[in-house]
Amino acid sequence: MIKAPKGTKDILPSEVYKWQFVVETARKVASLYNVKEIRTPVFEHTEVFLRGVGETTDIVNKEMYTFLDKGERSITLKPEGTAGVARAFVENGLHNLALPVKLYYITPCFRYERPQAGRLREFHQFGVEFLGSSSAETDAEAIVLAKSFLNELKVDGVKLYINSIGCKNCRSAYQKALKEYYAKRYDELCPLCKERFEKNPLRLLDCKNEQCGELAKGAPSILDYLCEECDTHFTKVKNYLTALNVEYEVKSDIVRGLDYYTKTVFEFVSVNIGAQGTVLGGGRYDGLIEGFDGGNHPGVGFALGIERLLLLMENTGKEFKAEDCVKIYVAPMGEKAYVKAMELVYSLRNCGVKAETDHMQRGVKAQFKYADKIGAKYVVVIGENELINNSVRVKEMATGVETEVSIDNVKEFIINA
Ligand code: HAM
To answer: Is the minimum distance from the CB of 125 to ligand 1 under 6 angstroms?
Structure first.
């Protein structure tokens, strides 16, 4: 038997309604904030992610699905949504639209990671990007949109952590301090952190290794190194969140795993889904568009992992709006009745009623069993006698109550039932 590749999952009909509910809610909330959908390709030139996500990140170094296509071009399946949106923004001259350009996407992403609960190789993101604004108001709006989405789904037990990792200027002073701190403890670092020490010291704060985690606790805080502009910006973001009653905690070791971030970064984290607790992550990225030669168009956004969200909702017993069940099942007996049954369900469907009939030449008993399985609310049997008398009995499955109706009036009866 051929199995799906490791780290991928079929989304079966029995659970797809959960996805539909989450995606519908995402679209609804995005629309309330007047955010428009953008769809970018699932694969891009590898360069997009090298420039966008950053060459020193785990994503680019270890996790990308990269291959040469038949034209010998290096292609990568998108590991995240932001870099592709940035490329599309520049390529399509979206800076000519009213700013900020507010975009959202729902997309599969691919990362070659070790699979575990909440960590897959193919996963899906709902992401939002606001481009062309450098203001703290836009940061607040991005965070509040994320919060509105989680509220709308009635997700609770998720904590919002925020931080500022400053701009290029304040960060270089901070990195210097960080390196001074870690230089004295270099030998205690894990092999990966030794690499990070050289290439990307900020990421030292984010190591999952226990000993590195202990070391990180004593490290200097970026918040003590913010320049005046970054400090004022961060204060404004916090004030907006307070004014809007959005609870948050400042956590100075949130640095995020992608290189494009500047100033505000944030994460929504749950304790209910194990080690992969970050349901949503985001932040400001003022240099990203410039990195694509697209001019100075700062941005801010976030992405939420749909699988992690579903895991959280399932683990905390949240309700998903189920798909409507079949309103009527028409059980035909005999050839003429099949034609009548097809006519009836066709005309009901044309009126927006979810209806089914038999395709399998089953007997009456088996048809009732099937109707029960699909959760049909009403069942009507059409046999030879019913055709002759132009009369059927419509059975309400939950109560067993039967109502005599002429065949011509079944449609009217069911529409009003
Ligand atoms: P990220 O933190 O790498 O950020 O991913 C965002 C979310 O995607 C995570 O919080 C998590 O829920 C989900 N996720 C990431 N990797 C996996 C995986 N292997 N399996 C399942 N879920 C996963 C970004 O991707 C940024 N582009 C977010 C952003 C948008 N920042 C600004 N704009």
So the answer is: yes
